[in-house]
Design a protein that fits this description.
- With 120 residues, this protein is of the alpha+beta class.
- The chain has one domain.
- The protein is 40% helix and 12% strand.
- The protein has a 4-stranded mixed beta sheet with strand order 1-2-3-4, sandwiched between helices.
- Helix 1 crosses helix 4.
- The protein is globular.
- The N and C termini lie far apart (61 Å).
- About 7% of the residues have low confidence.
Length: 120
């Protein structure tokens, strides 16, 4: 009788840190992001970004759990509401999956770096 293999658990901090590790390695000359910035406090909400470049109004969300039924919370209307609210407050939000950060970390970092440079 074979044992059923469980999908490895991925901690939120682990997948989130994938971006920070790539950023520190590939963009050391750029500003460092802030973790868990509560961008919607100005209107009394409690939404946070995984990573934020506050002065530039640029955020990075690392999506996990998309393999879950219904796409996890990143496929929910609540997540869409969060991103729509961010857009209404003039935030540019990049969404990366862990596989994007694993397969092409330089491509992910370059997109964010270009946006930061363009925001100056």
């Amino acid at each position: 009788m074979s044992k059923r293999r469980k999908r490895p658990a991925v901690l939120n901090d682990d997948k989130k840190d994938m971006f920070l590790n790539a950023w520190r390695m590939l963009a050391p000359d750029m500003p460092q992001p802030v973790s868990e910035y509560g961008f919607s406090r100005v209107i009394g909400r409690r939404h946070r970004f995984d990573w934020s470049f506050i002065n530039e109004r640029i955020a990075v969300e690392v999506d996990g759990g998309t393999w879950m039924p219904g796409g996890g919370r990143h496929g929910s209307d609540a997540d869409r509401e969060k991103l729509n609210l961010a857009a209404s407050l003039r935030w540019l939000v990049f969404r990366f999956s862990p596989s994007m950060l694993t397969n092409d970390p330089a491509g992910c970092v370059d997109l964010v770096r270009l946006a930061i440079i363009d925001s100056r």
